[in-house]
Amino acid sequence: MENHKLVAGHLSALGTILIWGVTFISTKLLLKDFTPIEILLFRFIIGYIALFLVYPHRLKTKDFKEELLFALSGLCGVTLYFLLENIALTFTLAANVGIIVSIAPLFTALLAYFFEGENLRTEFFIGFIVAIIGIVLVMLNGSYFLRVNPLGDILASLAAIVWAVYSVLMRRISRFHYNTIGCTRKVFFYGLLFMIPALFFVPFHFDYYAFTKVQNMFNLLFLGLGASAVCFVSWNWSVSILGAVKTSVYIYIVPVITIAASALILHEIITWVAFVGVLLTLAGLYVSERKTVKIVKQIDV
């Protein structure tokens, strides 16, 4: 039974990443009529409403410490991560952001090692290096060399760090054994709450005409229902089963899915360099998941 649960956890993480890898395409199409903050706000409002309809019960925490963990999760996993990622795209190349954000598993592993006492394997770091080489090749796609843009790259690095913090926080929240949908909805609530101040500093307007376009509504529903409501629940559930480190390793596949979706939907060309990158990324994921030598941090209980 335990093995079946682990397999389900891996399949859930993989399915989540398959959807998240396509969100870049939907967001790119929506940016024609919406600003980044508008897309972010609308998708999570849709996600919150969907989760409320599925699980309308109030999730009452036991104390302030638990409530604080939910608030920090919403701040990191929803507000800060997506804002930092979207703003970074205005200062640097999408390739830079894609590569840097994909390093999140390393930050997750380090945080989980120091604060959670999770096991680390030497294979994780070997797989990490192989996957990053593959990710670089995928994102470059043989078209240009990676250029350094300090501000944008720093923001993307911060996005990777706050996602790692979110993963570790959700691992702690999973130990409370609350309903996963209820937990995700509470995280969304705090994410939306912390998003409100940003509306006063970035362009935001409500364009009714933009919502009348079928393509826009489809992409908003895809982001809100699929990529937000369903995927955050499945991701959080996977974290509770596999742990923050193992689940985060699947983030390596995001650039692979994105470039494949770009070729199919946006008709972008995939070069042999990107194809080699795909193979290296998948190889890195396989090596990171192998169960051999472990590095264990001893912690006091």
Automatic annotation (TrEMBL):
Keyword annotations: Cell membrane, Membrane, Transmembrane, Transmembrane helix
InterPro entries: AA-Vitamin_Transporters, EamA_dom, EmrE-like
Transmembrane segments: 7-27, 39-56, 68-84, 90-115, 124-145, 151-169, 189-211, 217-237, 249-266, 272-288
Cell compartment(s), UniProt: Cell membrane
Membrane topology note: Multi-pass membrane protein
One Pfam entry name: EamA
Predominant cellular place of this UniProt entry's protein: membrane
Protein's UniProt keywords contain Chaperone: no
Domain EamA: 9-139, 151-287
GO cellular component, one term: plasma membrane
Tagged with keyword Transmembrane: yes
Family: Belongs to the EamA transporter family.
Entry protein name: Putative amino-acid metabolite efflux pump
Species assigned in the record: Desulfosporosinus acididurans
